Amino acid sequence: MAPETIQILIAMIIYMAAVIVIGFAFTKKANKSSENYFLGGRSLGPWVAAMSAEASDMSGWLLMGLPGVAYWCGLADATWTAIGLAVGTYVNWLIVSKRLRRYSIKANNSITLPDFFSNRFKEKKKIIMTIAALFILVFFTVYAASCLVTCGKLFSTLFGAPYLAMMVLGAVFVLIYTLMGGFLAESASDFMQAIVMIVALIVVVITGVAAAGGLDSVIDNAKDIPGFFEFFGIATPTVDANDVQLIQGAQPLFGPRADYGFLSIISMMAWGLGYFGMPQVLLRFMAIRKEKELTRSRRIATVWVLISLAVAVFIGIVGRSLYPTALTTASESESVFILLSTNLLPPLIAGFVMAGILAATISSSDSYLLIAASAVSKNIYQGLFRKNASDKHVMWASRIVLAAIAVIAVIMALDENSVIFTIVSFAWAGFGATFGPLMLFSLFWKRINRAGAIAGMIGGAGMVFLWKLVLKPLGGFFGIYELLPAFIFSCLLIVGISLLTSPPSKEIEADFEEVKTAKES
After folding, report:
1. pTM for this one?
2. What is the CATH code of the structural domain delimited by 3-27+59-517?
3. Which of 75, 158, 191, 236 is the most exposed place for a label (fewest CB within 10 A)?
4. What is the DSSP string of 501-518?
């Protein structure tokens, strides 16, 4: 192994050791009860709540997937996605966070999302809870797989090791860490990882712009590529039969500029709708220690997201200027952040910057694994099969489920040519359409009933699969991002079925009014 590679490895080991220390520090407190393990005893401060929510949400695609899209086809796709995410972040913190924090306590002190939905409608037969838990299990397993793909690509690119071995090693590390500390360890380390991520992004973009000869040089190069530096146009790489970009005279080949119309913009901005159904973000709203602190959290989260997304997109543009022919497939383009870091920074610094990718991956995968495990152990195992199960049994069940989910995610991540952005977009749509409309109507519409809630969840999730697998390949109008039609369909089902069936009980309506009119705590 080359000396430079050893220095990178040393820096990353130091970082991973710090993460493990955090896990150990919270192990005792986390294991006191299932509420501590799964929700941290509602003790998060505003900074930790905000930063951990965004770090767990953004995952490895912020440092690999989003720059990769910008490197491959230019500003449009990446920028409109980023704008949608920024708007969604702000609106979610603004309208959902306080009401959910308050309502989750009123709804029998719910500590998981399936708990909240079930208790919100005062279920006796836990149908909503079971459906919600199963969808969380499915979509978070897909999400976890995307994180493992990130780990595999990172380590195989850095150290020239086989992708499969590196991906499995990443899975083992994340699993051990999550088993130790639960939600508190996850949130505390996510706070640190959010800082590492944004510092890494800023360091790389500043260094890259300087190496490319300045901002004007980067922009001039991007403008030379048809459609690359436009918001209403998109570049079209010329590829061969294997989807590898063609090179001529040391320059990548591009076809004519393609239009980027209103439908494409709305499709990408629809990413913002996903936030209303993201369990890893919604749980932070529930876990903060005081409702009034969510205002500060909103400001912190919004600033972090705006800076991170803007810099991540521009890294792809800088990468195309510096290394126009280095990455010749959509999958390879997701390594542009790694390419810039290892080529432009001193090895030890590059190692800490690479830890930014590891930070993003860990901060997301531990959240995904923990929430999926809680859905099965707390909501299915205890909620349905062993209602008298002790906290100790629930936590042991969660650990078994964690291991099982990790194994399934490893199997799903076996293909090293997987495109991280594509995997994440599907899981994001799944959560957004399954839980987003239900969350909004549960918090803000008194007339929603149990039948409407069930129809909305199943219809939203079903439409994601139908649109993605059957309709989207038809192209044209059907080429839009599946989250948008699925979200709308779920809303229509919730309203329609709720109005066609009996209204909720007076008790449920009274709870709604109490939460609506309660003063901020």
Report:
1. 0.86
2. 1.20.1730.10
3. 236
4. SPPPPHHHHHHHHHHHHP
